């Protein structure tokens, strides 16, 4: 299984186009933020001395959440390519057990997702420092890395479920384009969650990757929010957090970090099970 995982890693990273397109959504978000979104959002926060720092931290958290989805999607392109080119028949004719083949695809996608998220975090930290901000502390970095592992696990399983239905590169490419387009909305990056209609907010609040963004925002934005809203009334701070997707409310109940973690773990296990069942059904 490990050797097969290594093979998939090499295939993915040798294909520069796959790497680029798996990060395309991230590049689009960065470009939109740098060109106009950043100025639009901070223009209404002139009363805060560190408005840009708050929004930089906010976008970083969202970018990492998006990266954990799009890069795992790109990683599973190897599996679809193997099916399309009939390479999977040669792989299955080898002594490698079927469970090891499936495990190799899943592990390689997970590892790719983690690697790309860590790279994205490092680049974003460099950007924040260049803009006059400060690096995350050691404990915060540990929390962020733990959330990267959890988010990538959950999103790997979610993406695998959808990819398990694809038998051609065309279908996979279309799905990748659609997911890359809507993921920014579903994680509340293009438009803050609090500005969306209630029905759309309800969908976002049950979408597992949005809980990845939620948890990452709570960690990455912790210090800048304390600085920016020092002395502000608690209800003002809570309203801002709810608007920007730093906290979720279902009715009058605030979603706790523990509940969000539970949602990510549960969704990961459920979609992983469904994916395995679907792949097994197609082999009969």
Can you give a write-up of this model?
The protein has a two-stranded antiparallel sheet. The protein is mainly α and 284 residues long. It has helices at residues 2-14, 16-22, 24-43, 51-75, 77-84, 87-92, 98-130, 138-163, 169-186, 198-205, 208-220, 222-228, 234-244, 257-283; strands at 249-250, 253-254.
Topology:
Layout: H1 2-14, H2 16-22, H3 24-43, H4 51-75, H5 77-84, H6 87-92, H7 98-130, H8 138-163, H9 169-186, H10 198-205, H11 208-220, H12 222-228, H13 234-244, E1 249-250, E2 253-254, H14 257-283
Antiparallel strand pairs: 1-2
Helix pairs in contact: 1-7, 2-4, 3-4, 4-7, 4-8, 4-9, 4-11, 7-8, 8-11, 8-14, 11-14
Distance between the termini: 23 Å
Coarse structural class: mainly alpha
Largest sheet: 2 strands, antiparallel
For the biggest β-sheet, the strand order reads: 1-2
Quick tags:
elongated, 284 residues, two-stranded antiparallel ribbon, 1% strand, mainly alpha
